[in-house]
Amino acid sequence: MKRIDTKYIVKAGAIAAIYFVVTILLGSVSYGPIQFRISESLVVLPMVEPAAIWGVFIGCLLANIGSPFGLLDILGGSLVTLLAAYLTSKTKTFYKGILPPIILNALIVSIWVSYFTKMPYYLVALYIALSEAIVTGVFGYVVITVYKRLKDKYSL
């Protein structure tokens, strides 16, 4: 087993902090049946940064404390993000890497969001899939491109 060093912990912490702050700052669009959680763009980072798996999980866990859907979203949503980040880390291409967060959030998070908002499941799943596709596909591409450049330039 690979030893976790200080650099790994700092990276995970920084990613968690960014995820948390961005989610909270954009709170009104970060939760609900039509959510545009910009912080989810960080879920693509595990493709190039193993510490991002724990970083996005912890950031999501902390951000979901503010969720209107309570403990179910705090634990369930965070575990969905953890699984999506892990599966993304196993992919080889960007376009395959964005599929786990899109699919898992659309199919699983939509269960309780539709229940609490009393909206049809299929509609919530569609809204979440579309917003997740935009966030991970567009903003995620920017995040991963910038991170690769910074990693090369500063030996992150």
TrEMBL record:
InterPro entries cross-referenced by the UniProt entry: QueT
Pfam families: QueT
Entry's transmembrane regions: 12-32, 52-85, 97-115, 121-147
Keywords tagged on the record: Membrane, Transmembrane, Transmembrane helix
Name listed for the protein in its UniProt record: Putative membrane protein
Organism of derivation: Thermoanaerobacter siderophilus SR4
Organism phylogeny: Bacteria, Bacillati, Bacillota, Clostridia, Thermoanaerobacterales
